[in-house]
Amino acid sequence: MPVKDPLDFNRAIIDATADLVCAYKPNIAFYEALGMDGLRALEGTIDHIRKAAPNTVILGDAKRGDIGSTAPAYAKAMFQVWGFDAVTVNAWGGYDGLEPFLEDPARGVFIWCRGSNPGSADLQDLTVNTLDGPIPLYQHLARSADGWNRNGNIGLVMGATNPDQLADVRSLCPHMPLLIPGVGAQGGDLADAVLAGMDRNGRRALINSSRGIIYARPEPGGSQDFAAAARQAAARLRDQINRILTDAGKGWL
Ligand SMILES: O=c1ccn([C@@H]2O[C@H](COP(=O)(O)O)[C@@H](O)[C@H]2O)c(=O)[nH]1
């Protein structure tokens, strides 16, 4: 069924995928592209996810990061005002800027570690000298995150477009959840991402797909039901992930 109000479009996609996904990551750029006030749309989208899929995690991909005097206000905004269950943060400012986000063990904090975009290499791949010798900066960040993880609520954002680096970080942080964007529209290989990103039980890899689902197109000549197309794309991705896990002997019984 064609949808006129962009917020209805979001609601329809959420309704159509509620039983298929474990986390939603609302996308402000998407709302703005549809001509909406992004913040109002975000509010409406969060409200709707809470009603339609109360058990899913809502992830605020805002990549916040500031000095210790202002970071608490950002953490309060993300967790208490918006009510996100988990957020992404930027660790460029070091530990004191992250500390306020880490205080509540019930809220997840994904540190952007090695991006999926080409420009991530500009800084994140630089070699740094550590007590254990020279290593890439993203590996140093992964090790540091492991040390900061006193409340057990840290995860890492690792791009799917560089599976070797993803595998490096998985071996440095064997138990950490990894949020993995870059499959679908960005061209990362799904099987490589799942196999490199999963833990030894085949879990703790959150594969992200945004445009691959929200921009899914209905079959040409068929009904113009975008929500059904999004559902189909989400189900296909879920089934592909499960098949990869099963083939690796790590399926869900
Ligand atoms: O390294 C990164 C960090 C974050 N992202 C975010 O994930 C989504 C991916 O969207 P797709 O449409 O599935 O490509 C994007 O909105 C980024 O904000 C990332 O891609 N890479």
From TrEMBL:
Domain of life: Eukaryota
Domain Orotidine 5'-phosphate decarboxylase, chain residue ranges per copy: 1-226
Recorded catalytic activity of this chain's protein: orotidine 5'-phosphate + H(+) = UMP + CO2
UniProt keyword Lyase present: yes
InterPro entries assigned to the protein according to its UniProt record, in alphabetical order: Aldolase_TIM, OMPdecase_AS, OMPdecase_type-2, OMPdeCOase_dom, RibuloseP-bd_barrel
Top enzyme category: lyase
Keywords annotated in UniProt: Decarboxylase, Lyase, Pyrimidine biosynthesis
Pathway(s) annotated for this protein in UniProt: Pyrimidine metabolism; UMP biosynthesis via de novo pathway; UMP from orotate: step 2/2
One annotated GO molecular function: orotidine-5'-phosphate decarboxylase activity
EC number: 4.1.1.23
Pfam families tied to this protein: OMPdecase
GO biological process: 'de novo' pyrimidine nucleobase biosynthetic process; pyrimidine nucleotide biosynthetic process
Similarity-based family: Belongs to the OMP decarboxylase family. Type 2 subfamily.
The protein's name: Orotidine 5'-phosphate decarboxylase
Biological source species: Geodia barretti
